Amino acid sequence: MFSRHIHAQLLDSIEAAPAVALLGPRQVGKTTLALEVAKTRPSVYLDLQSERDRAKLDQAELYLQDHLGQLVILDEVHRAPGLFPVLRGLIDQARREGKRSGQYLLLGSASLDLLKQSGETLAGRITFLELGPLSILEVGAPSADDLWVRGGFPDSLQAPSAARSLKWRQDFIRTYLERDVPLFGPRIATQSLRLLWTMLAHQQGGMVNTTQLARNLGVDVKTVNSYIHLLTDLLLLRRLPPWHANAGKRLVKTPKLYVRDSGLVHALLDLATKESVLSHPVIGASWEGFCLENILACAPAQVQGYFYRSSGGAEVDLLLQWPGGDLWAIEIKRSLSPKVERGFHAACTDLNPTRKMVVYPGNEHYPLGHDVQAMPLMQLCEQLVAQSSARQ
């Protein structure tokens, strides 16, 4: 079992709030982590995919009242949105009796946008945390290439062969297309959604032209946008917003789109091994998305991620905005001898960041000139986690 760096934060949140929602894609390790938490205190676990466990909640208020002294873990909670008003009433009852935390741990496979009812019903009573695929800090630097190629879903990463890993990811994609996507949204043609997902993998990290995508799929732009929003809400796509605070420049306003797990990028493109990835045009964009997801997973929750691009060619792959306004400018290069391009220097002149760095796949940290540092991904992630701990 992998040690997840969110574990301590989850325990702290349970001690501080009546309800905690742990959100993340299916098979990412939410249940495993929740059951580890359950070992630390009196708990009861219900899987809402199970008919037997759902039957226990036919009279939900009566059942949950019997467990007011325990941490109730509700897995796949998005399958029972009608529970949220009941939870609100029980949380308020427990507050009147002096118990203000540690009552409910809700596990779900969708973002807050798809759990709007919980956000509205449990406002002021719930904390949201996101568990993504495994990060480089959780698997270690020696496994970084496997993590990049196979992705961060534990079963894919630990598969006994590259072929078995690819098969697991392809089955995962099929399950989402045939079962999970219809659960959350209107009925969508499976083949159309798969084709869209594959097109987005080919355009990893690009500013997607939805009009062209709609034309290729034979649907309207509104439908394409709804597909993209749904995959984003299911925590499978990331929309990286453009930086927009520099009013004196003409800036790109379209977000970049990334398939969040690099292993899913490779599965959608039928790339089973590192050699097949290295020979494919997606290599640079795949590595960029892999680094970006690791960096954002390790950064403190208050840090916001953006990219920067002006009409004059100034560009930064990833901007981290810290509370208080400090900026870190990060360029991502798949090269052991990275070079900083003119567009990055121009962007830094526009933005005046407090730190400038190039993330690359090497092992040494060294200066590149002009206050730019070459930085291994592992080292940057360690620094971000240390910053997060220092701010707690």
What does this entry show, briefly?
The chain is α/β, with parallel strands linked by helices. It folds into two domains: 7-130, P-loop containing nucleotide triphosphate hydrolases (Rossmann fold), CATH 3.40.50; 136-391, no CATH class.
Topology, element by element:
Layout: H1 7-16, E1 19-23, H2 30-38, E2 43-47, H3 51-56, H4 60-65, E3 71-75, H5 83-96, E4 104-108, H6 116-121, E5 126-130, H7 136-139, H8 144-150, H9 154-157, H10 162-184, H11 190-202, H12 210-217, H13 221-233, E6 237-240, E7 256-259, H14 262-268, H15 274-278, H16 283-298, E8 304-309, E9 315-321, E10 327-332, H17 342-351, E11 355-360, E12 366-369, E13 372-376, H18 377-391
Parallel strand pairs: 1-4, 1-5, 2-3, 3-4, 10-11, 11-13
Antiparallel strand pairs: 6-7, 8-9, 9-10, 12-13
Largest sheet: 6 strands, mixed
Report the mean per-residue pLDDT as an integer.
Answer: 91
Question: What percentage of residues falls in helices of 4 or more residues?
Answer: 40-55%
Structural class: alpha/beta
User: Strands of the biggest beta sheet: in what spatial order?
Assistant: 8-9-10-11-13-12
Beta strand count:
13
Distance between the termini: 26 Å
Q: What distinguishing features does this structure have?
A:
13 strands; Rossmann fold; 2 domains; 6-stranded mixed sheet; 392 residues; alpha/beta
